[in-house]
Amino acid sequence: IGLVVSVDRFGDEWMGYILRISGGYDLQGFCMMQGVLTNTWVRLLFADGMPNYKMRRAGVRKRKSVRGRIVDSQLSVLDLVSMKKGDAEIPGLTDNAQPRRLGPKREGKIRKLFNLSKEDDVRQYVVHRPLPEKDGKKLRSKAPKIQLLFTTARIQLKRKV
């Protein structure tokens, strides 16, 4: 996990692509875990805040089997992240761009994304998500409520305190 690999040997369409191994599963369904330096199963004691574990009750720890981070022939799934795009497009993978479903919700992150100044109105730049059309009704969309938005009413409240 974490190894950066050049995939030129896969064929001409993969020329120039560089991928990073980000995880995977073995044939029995055990997930790979960063920091376990083996290619076999290890039983670890998981606590709250550790990856691959969700605590159900307060203070409860659980011993689970995970697979080491070393890649071998026993893997059934290997998760890869594209680090560098190559020369040609790969059909079904890089030929169509998927837009982000959700945009930023916080005021500062919206300003950073659209490179806005302090005078610009952030409410005009919120990313709206279109909803599926219902028969006979006009097209609707959803947008998040902007967090940490400094309006004139909020500034007046701060002055009073």
Structural class: alpha+beta
| Mean of residue pLDDT values | 90
Largest sheet, strands/sense/barrel? 3 strands, antiparallel
Low-confidence stretches: none
Give the C-alpha Rg. Answer: 24 Å
The count of helical stretches stands at 2
Shape: extended
Which descriptors would you attach to this protein?
161 residues; alpha+beta; three-stranded antiparallel beta sheet; two-stranded antiparallel ribbon; 2 helices; 7 strands; extended
Compact description:
By secondary structure, the protein is of the alpha+beta class. It has helices at 107-114, 152-160; strands at residues 4-6, 18-26, 41-46, 62-67, 75-84, 129-130, 141-142.
Description:
The protein is of the alpha+beta class and 161 residues long. Helices cover 11% and strands 24% of the residues. The chain has helices at residues 107-114, 152-160; strands at residues 4-6, 18-26, 41-46, 62-67, 75-84, 129-130, 141-142. The strands form three sheets. The protein has a three-stranded antiparallel sheet with strand order 1-2-5, with no helix packed on it. A two-stranded antiparallel ribbon has the order 3-4. It has a two-stranded antiparallel sheet with strand order 6-7. It is extended and about 65 Å long.
